[in-house]
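Can't paste images in this forum, so I'm doing it all in text. The chain is below; anyone willing to post the predicted structure tokens underneath?
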Amino acid sequence: MIRGIALGVGAAVSLSFAGHAQTRKAAVPAEVRAVAGAWQVARLDEWPDTCPLRLTSVQAIGGYAVVLGRGCDTAFAPHDNASSWSADIYAWRPGAKGTIVLADAVRHSIMTFTYIRMGTGEHAWIGHGPDGQDYELIRDLHPGQHKVMSDE
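Text version of the structure:
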């Protein structure tokens, strides 16, 4: 009889732990799912230099993980072989009023992109960089060309 009670308690405990584990895994918010994917950061006045990156839905310090593509560490460097502010990008998060915030590993905002609709019917995500330049965040329609790693 004692074994039956112990087994019953053990089963109840393991069921409650299983339920707890399921509730701990939070659903990814719709605004994160809508933004997650392959993007590029480009300086508005210089298209040749871009930083391909993947905004993931994997939680990280400061928001959600960012996977930088090849060349992001020097894409916007002030001079050859120097590190760039883009090398510090660690996470992203939805910001106030629908903005997209890129942040470093200690949650400091590096750049905030605002969605802008222009009179011509076009739209863009525009941000002001820490180097004083204006940048555009562009949805990458051909992510395989830039060797950005998967978020899975």
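The beta strands are 37-43, 46-60, 63-68, 91-94, 100-103, 109-117, 123-128, 134-139. Confidence is low (pLDDT under 50) at residues 1-23, 146-152.
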